[in-house]
Write a sequence for this structure.
């Protein structure tokens, strides 16, 4: 299945986690995938041991018959970002079909400091969260769009990996503001891209299982008991029912292969919603419920009514809550 044969894609931050999963899926679908990450890289021995690294992502793409190009990039450095796009343009006659803005540098810092309030941390936490997670995405989107607009006719798709952290307090003020801004950026860019045939979409992965970092972040969030009302048991259940790191990649493959994708310009999707739309399941064959589905919320005890979990057995997964309602609901938690 090479639905993306001949396409050129860039996934920023592809050493591990969701970025790695997306790169694997785009590569498996036939795209030539540029993958970025920072040096220093893991040693050969660590790669042999299966530890995540950019090299490992590239090797895994190639073992699936795909093509990967590693470009070591510090996404907090403007000149390195610019050089990355120059390289892609030079090597592909100016073509870039798919940009996935995924790089995020603040996760470790956030986990270590999840028990501190914003005024207890130095204000540079803003830069830790948002230099790569927001500023870099803006830079990448500018350079990618320039390549996409120059084509005849203009075409391309830009996906920002965001999260429900844009909806409600999670971990840290600077983190949440950055995520909310990222969603806004996508939507505003979409306004300017509307007539150009270039598509900008924000994608929210749900709870991602097997990801150590997600588990640790979630554990960190638990420490914020003054803010979070999700119990550790509920959280465990949510993660156990979660999606693989490649599920977001399947969503992007489906979107990028859809000739009518531009109709979705400016939308914010959860991965489970994209799966419902295009009819795919996770890599292990499991159906993933959208976090927006009533069933998901009931199952995970996120609806504050007695017996909510019991009711969830009777609610079909296709009963969806409108995004605006979820937003209001989550804010009210
Ligand atoms: C940014 O990257 C360039 C090229 O790799 C390097 O020469 C420069 O020192 C970097 N700047 C910073 C602030 O790290
Ligand atoms: C993605 O991020 C870029 C840069 O931050 C922004 O310009 C663009 O509008 C965003 N697009 C989407 C769909 O989120």
């Amino acid at each position: 299945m090479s639905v993306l044969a001949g396409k050129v894609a860039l996934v920023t931050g592809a050493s591990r986690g969701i970025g790695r999963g997306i790169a694997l899926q785009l590569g498996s679908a036939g795209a030539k995938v540029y993958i970025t990450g920072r040096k220093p890289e893991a040693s050969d021995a660590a790669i042999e041991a299966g530890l995540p690294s950019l090299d490992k992502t590239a090797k895994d793409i190639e073992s699936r018959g795909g093509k990967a190009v590693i470009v070591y990039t510090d996404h907090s450095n403007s000149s390195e970002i610019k050089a990355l796009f120059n390289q892609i343009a030079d090597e592909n006659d100016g073509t870039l079909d798919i940009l996935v803005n995924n790089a995020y540098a603040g996760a470790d810092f956030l986990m270590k400091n999840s028990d501190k309030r914003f005024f207890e941390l130095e204000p540079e936490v803003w830069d830790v969260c948002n230099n790569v997670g927001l500023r870099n995405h803006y830079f990448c989107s500018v350079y990618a769009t320039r390549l996409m607009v120059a084509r005849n006719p203009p075409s391309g798709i830009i996906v920002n990996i965001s999260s429900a952290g844009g909806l409600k307090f999670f971990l840290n003020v600077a983190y949440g503001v950055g995520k909310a801004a990222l969603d806004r950026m996508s939507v505003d860019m979409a306004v300017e891209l509307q007539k150009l045939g270039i598509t900008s979409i924000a994608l929210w992965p749900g709870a991602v299982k097997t990801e150590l970092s997600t588990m640790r972040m979630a554990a960190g969030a638990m420490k914020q008991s003054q803010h979070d009302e999700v119990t550790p048991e509920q959280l465990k259940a949510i993660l156990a029912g979660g999606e693989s790191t490649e599920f977001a990649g399947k969503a992007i493959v489906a979107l990028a292969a859809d000739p009518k994708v531009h109709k979705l310009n400016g939308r914010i999707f959860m991965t489970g919603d994209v799966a419902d739309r295009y009819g795919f399941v996770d890599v292990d064959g499991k159906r993933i419920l959208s976090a927006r589905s009533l069933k998901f919320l009931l199952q995970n005890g996120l609806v504050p009514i007695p017996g909510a979990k019991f009711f969830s057995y009777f609610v079909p997964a296709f009963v969806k809550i409108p995004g605006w309602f979820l937003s209001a609901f989550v804010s009210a938690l």
The first helix runs from residue 17 to 28. The first strand starts at residue 8 and ends at 11.
